[in-house]
Amino acid sequence: MARDWRASVPLTERQELVRRSIREVCADFDDEYWRTCDREGEYPHEFVDELAANDWLGILVPEAYGGVGMGTPEAVVMMEEIAGSGGGFAAAQAVHGGVYNTVPIVNYADESLKQRLLPDVASGEARIQAFGLTEPDAGSDSTAMTTRAERDSAEETSADPTEATASADGDRYVVDGEKVWTSRVEASDYLVLLARTTPRDEVEKRTEGISMFLVDLDDAMADGLEIEPIPKTASAAVPAYQLYFDGVSVPAENLIGEEGRGFYQVLDGLNEERLVIAAECLGLGEVALERGIEYAREREVFGGPIGANQAIQHPLAEAYADLHAAKSVIYRAADRLDDLDREAAGARANVAKYLAAEAAFAAADAAVQTHGGYGVAREYDVERYFREARLTRLVPITQQLALNYLGERVLGLPRSY
Ligand SMILES: Cc1cc2nc3c(=O)[nH]c(=O)nc-3n(C[C@H](O)[C@H](O)[C@H](O)COP(=O)(O)OP(=O)(O)OC[C@H]3O[C@@H](n4cnc5c(N)ncnc54)[C@H](O)[C@@H]3O)c2cc1C
């Protein structure tokens, strides 16, 4: 596989180590594996288990809790490699939650919750793959969420003490509402849930009154949580679900951080996560472009390789230039994130995500066109990359919302909401 054209950026020793190790794991999962997962809508359990067995789900968990103790500069390498190995955005998304949902736990959970959970997460025994923020009427405007978590202490509950034994001290929250597009639920032991503990019309700022919880999915399902897969096309190997909470108990000790501050806790890790998403888009664009280049070299039409035609060559070269630019922004930002204030970090993270998703789309589109009719044949994979590249313009925030950030926060233009 020709990787030598890929834009290179200087890597630290740790980043080199991550690249080598992840490349080794990915080498055992060939195109047919990813093709089958996509076609059958099957989650890539074997791949994720292999990464977990090599401790990579704990890349961001501190060593004190049994993790690898690395940070964003290494996570971008990990995710670019995974996507770029051939697995595409779906492969990276299959593990993304497991890696990133540890961050609020590390930063905000009580010490007892960390001790209870993180060593098992780091060893791959427990998975926190699912993150529930979006609701049917709260996507881009996520603070419009209405899912409610109401505190219900033991003294206030019924005479039957067994009803309120969800936690050691009897305190619990009772959750009612709906979430949508929650990914990886069936591949997860826990869900990080955002829910309103104070209704929106009772808080001064809409970002207040939202709390974060760790939900044990087995317990929640036993208590009436219902889940329904959402049939979809792109990234079919990583299913997403609609979740229905109807009086589901969550022990009070599973509150992550401070009640009412959950949204701020999400914002806290957002820039790092957005950069890593950008790296996933980058890897996807690179593998799509690689397939385009290979085909352009080999396919002969009218007696010569199609890659000699500039109508074929230039879109591939343009995609290369776009990917190169995105890569420079991602790696430089990942290196410097700790030295930047939140606004500056936000600007770089949004630039990176925007550029990388556009570059991935340009690369996948050029690869499909290069393949002619075979561009839509599953066996050449580029149609799968194209579907995924289209998705990267929608998630985890849409390109418009990334541009809103830049327009409003960097350029100082008026807000649209
Ligand atoms: C495959 C998949 C997996 C996902 N996984 C998860 C997950 O695990 N957890 C989770 O919580 N969520 C998840 N999401 C949800 C995702 O984050 C949302 O879909 C996304 O934030 C957009 O929200 P929406 O779909 O409701 O679009 P809407 O908010 O309804 O927006 C519709 C369109 O209007 C545009 N728009 C809206 N307001 C403005 C404005 N002010 N300026 C310019 N344009 C605007 C948007 O950009 C978009 O193009 C997932 C989504 C998908 C598709």
For the structure shown, list the relevant keywords.
13% strand; Butyryl-CoA Dehydrogenase, subunit A, domain 2; 10 strands; four-stranded antiparallel β-sheet; 12 helices; 49% helix; four-stranded mixed β-sheet; 417 residues; binds flavin-adenine dinucleotide; alpha+beta; Butyryl-Coa Dehydrogenase, subunit A, domain 1; Butyryl-CoA Dehydrogenase, subunit A, domain 3
In short:
The protein has helices at residues 13-27, 31-40, 45-53, 72-100, 102-108, 111-122, 217-222, 262-298, 310-336, 342-370, 382-392, 399-410, and strands at residues 130-132, 148-152, 172-183, 190-196, 210-216, 226-229, 240-251, 255-256, 300-301, 304-305.
Under CATH, the homologous superfamily of the largest domain reads: Butyryl-CoA Dehydrogenase, subunit A, domain 3
Number of domains: 3
Distance between the termini: 47 Å
What CATH calls the topology of the largest domain is Butyryl-CoA Dehydrogenase, subunit A, domain 3
Mean pLDDT across residues = 95
> How much helix is in the residues?
40-55%
| CATH architecture classification name of the largest domain | Up-down Bundle
What is the 3D shape?
globular
N-to-C order of helices and strands: HHHHHHEEEEEHEEEHEEHHHH
Poorly predicted parts: 161-166
Topology, number of strands: 10
Rg, Å, rounded: 22 Å
CATH class (first level) name of the largest domain: Mainly Alpha
Secondary-structure-derived class = alpha+beta
For the biggest β-sheet, the strand order reads 1-4-5-8
Beta-strand portion reads: 5-15%
Q: What's the main sheet like?
A: 4 strands, mixed
How many helices does DSSP assign? 12
